Amino acid sequence: MNIDILLGKTQEHLVPLEGTKFFIHRQMLHDFLKLQQSAKNEGFDLQIISAFRDYDRQLKIWNAKARGERPLMDDQERVLNFSTLSPTEIVFAILRWSAIPGCSRHHWGSDIDVYDRKMQAPEEVKLVPSECIENGPAALLHNWLDDQISQNKAFGFFRPYSTDRGGISPERWHLSYYPISRRIIDSYTFSIFKKNILESEVLLKEIILENAEEIFERYIMNFDLP
Ligand SMILES: [Zn+2]
Fold it and tell me: Which residues have their alpha-adjacent CB atom under 5 A from ion ligand 1?
């Protein structure tokens, strides 16, 4: 395994998705197009809202949240009062919704966030749980995806954040392509994780290092399998 792929530091494994600004793993393209066509046959316009994200982009997201420049949310999608949080509380509040740079599945090109463009314009998509359940605009698409995944008809895609495992918040919009993401996660060791943090410009680094074992187990290795 190329560690640069794991950490989001290369794009050599990616291809552009035609007609979009997104890049995905070369070996996933064919099966993604099949999933998209299969959705289309059922009346859905399954589109990507987020795909590959590189290390530097994730670093900017993390550091903006660590400085209080981007809102931190609780589980009920309510904005937290940044000024009342301790540094440790800030780290764990960010981790619920965003990964440390080098730790995002979006680095791999195998993971995507999706929505139904028939129901929502891309600029309206917020990627919050309420969009994907009950009367939310992406709920029917995700109900259909549940059926496809459970019947093994999702062309290798599954939901790593389907249930609340006490780590990353459930993210129904997030799909992962098992044949690739499995290989990558299998090679992700604690020593790779720790070395990445030590060499990173990530803010709140001391807190992350103090809690390194817990963070690795709870937010990286802790996800639903197909
Ligand atoms: Zn995602």
Answer: 113, 174
Q: How far is the CA of 113 from the centre of ligand 1 (A)?
A: 5
pTM of the model: 0.95
Separation of CA 197 and ligand 1 centre (Å): 21
Phi and psi (nearest 5°) for 192? -65, -45
Contacts of 139 (CB under 8 A, 6+ apart): 131, 132, 133
Distance 171 CA to ligand 1 centre (A): 7
Shortest CA distance to 147 belongs to which of 28, 31, 44?
44
4-18 exposure pattern, b = at least 16 Cβ within 10 A, e = fewer: ebbbbbbeebbbebe
Q: pLDDT tens, 162-204?
A: 999 999 999 999 999 999 999 999 999 999 999 999 999 999 9
Decide: 223 and 168 in contact? Cβ < 8 Å.
yes
* Residue carrying the six token digits 């995905």: 24
Cα 111 to ligand 1 centre (Å): 7
Q: Domains of the chain (ranges plus CATH)?
A: 3-220 (3.30.1380.10)
**CA pair distance 96, 100, nearest whole angstrom:** 11
Section 54-67 average pLDDT: 98
Q: What separation in Å is there between the alpha carbon of 52 and the centre of ligand 1?
A: 9
> Where are the alpha helices (H) located in 135-200, listed in sequence order?
139-150, 178-186, 190-199
Residue with tokens 């994780």: 193
Mean pLDDT of 142-147: 98
What token pair was written down for 46? 């399954």
